[in-house]
Specification:
Helices cover 42% and strands 31% of the residues. It contains six helices and 24 strands. Strands 3-12-16-14-13-17 form a six-stranded antiparallel β-barrel. A four-stranded antiparallel sheet has the order 4-11-9-6, with no helix packed on it. A hairpin with a 2-residue loop joins strand 19 and strand 20.
């Protein structure tokens, strides 16, 4: 029995030894793959959000009472559609007052411009001046004639009195009488001439007074015109305020935000609604500044996320902002980032919006910005690469059932794949994801 027992134990030991030898011949199990030719892209991947390049805020144009706003966020609006309205009762009263004032001033100006009476008086006064000048001239001639007649009668009287001839007293008396009458006539004509001179002087002042009065009316007209201009400005302001009191949409768009809904008194500039055009939607990503240096306008972008389900929407880098900013990450790390603005492909965006899918501003998405692309490149899985002590890239190439460390030079690289520039050939077999225990020269076994 003892011999059988030891024989049995020996057989078991031999079997165990054979199993260990077989396993050592089989090698370390690894996953393997072949280097292949294909297209590879280098990209920057980051979280982002949808944005609009501009929005329109509908604000209170002036102090006043806003009426209830019925529009809801998400409602579509058309250009020039009424969005909100102020209580216009006071504005209408101001307009009526300004219009009435303008009308009254226009009446005063019309009366002030009516110069027919003054112009008629001016013409008649000038005609009277001519007549009086003629009468004055005639009266002056009458005076000259009277003086000549009086001089003659005086000389005739003096001659009779001084002559030694015998003359009758009657003749002398007659001569004296004629002389006295002639002198009275001179005095009378001189008085008449003086009266005509005075009247002529008075009439000559008439046109001056009328002209001065017309000048005064002209000045009053200028003052009235200035007052009318001020009243018309007040009227225009009242009309403008009435137009402002009805707020309309500047674009075809959608209501993004409503700040007030009930009637209340608000100050000028208080925001009421925010309007935007979803057809102008963009994506803004905050990229690490180190990665942003490789991004340029025109780079192709893949936009994806839960909002698009399994679809990747194409886009293009519109601009990379020239100024960066500091941001603290969720782990408390200070990062320097740059905003990159991305345009949606217009056709794709239109299809999304028309499909009824919910998409708006500040929706969370992800972007994959293609910074460089290489075609017909030699490609391997990114997990096959590791760095040696010198910092150079290495991988395990499979030769004769063994894993051999091989130095390679890489080109483009992303999270999934890498481009091999040198050190490997097409269809070379490599270890896709080498375990940490694998060393160069180890025998390996490939598992599927």
């Amino acid at each position: 029995m003892k011999k059988i027992k030891w024989l049995f134990l020996g057989v078991i030991g031999i079997l165990i030894a054979l199993i260990l030898v077989r396993d050592s011949m089989k090698g370390i199990p690894v996953s393997a793959g072949k280097a292949r030719e294909g297209n590879i892209s280098e990209y920057v991947e980051e979280r982002a959000k949808t944005t609009l390049p501009r929005t329109w805020k509908i604000c209170m144009p002036m102090n006043g009472r806003i009426m209830p706003i019925m529009l809801q966020p998400g409602e579509k609006v058309k250009q020039k559609q009424e969005l909100a309205r102020m209580d216009t009762s006071l504005l209408e009263a101001s307009l009526a007052e300004a219009s009435a004032h303008c009308e009254a001033l226009q009446g005063e100006i019309s009366i002030n411009k009516f110069n027919q009476l003054e112009e008629t008086a001016l013409r008649e006064s000038q005609e009277w001046i001519q007549i009086m000048n003629q009468l004055e001239s005639i009266s002056e001639k009458w005076v000259e004639a009277s003086r000549s007649a009086a001089k003659y009668t005086d000389e005739h009287r003096d001659t009779l009195v001084a002559s030694g001839q015998a003359v009758s007293k009657i003749s002398v008396s007659k001569a004296e009488m004629e002389s006295a009458v002639a002198n009275v006539k001179v005095a009378s004509d001189e008085l008449t001439h003086g009266v005509f001179q005075l009247i002529s002087t008075i009439f000559s002042l008439g046109p001056k007074y009328i002209s001065e009065y017309l000048s005064r009316k002209q000045l009053e007209g200028k003052v009235l015109n200035s007052r009318l201009a001020a009243s018309q400005a007040a009227e225009a302001e009242a009309v403008h305020n009435l137009k402002l009191a009805v707020m309309t949409s500047p674009i075809d768009g959608v209501v993004l935000n409503r700040f007030f809904d009930n009637e209340r008194v608000l100050s000028a500039g208080e925001p009421l609604l925010e309007i935007g055009d979803l057809g102008e939607l963009q994506v803004t990503a905050e990229i690490l500044s180190d990665e942003a240096t490789a991004i340029k306008p025109g780079d192709k972008v893949g936009i994806y996320g839960a909002v698009f389900e399994s679809r990747e929407v194409p886009g293009t880098v519109q601009r990379v902002n020239p100024k960066g900013f500091t941001k603290i990450s969720s782990l408390g790390v200070e990062q320097q980032r740059v905003k990159v603005v991305i345009d949606f492909d217009k056709t794709a965006l239109t299809e999304i919006l028309n499909s009824g899918q919910t998409l708006g501003v500040d929706f969370r998405v992800h972007v994959r910005i293609i910074t460089e692309n290489s075609q017909n490149a030699l490609i391997i899985p990114r997990t096959a690469l590791f760095k040696g002590e010198s910092g150079s890239w290495k991988l395990f190439k499979i030769e004769n059932g063994k894993a051999i460390i091989t130095d390679v030079k890489i080109g483009l690289i992303n999270d999934c794949e890498a481009e091999i520039i040198s050190g490997l050939a097409k269809d070379d077999l490599i270890v896709s994801a080498p375990p940490t225990s694998l060393n160069s020269g180890n025998r390996i076994s490939i598992h599927r």
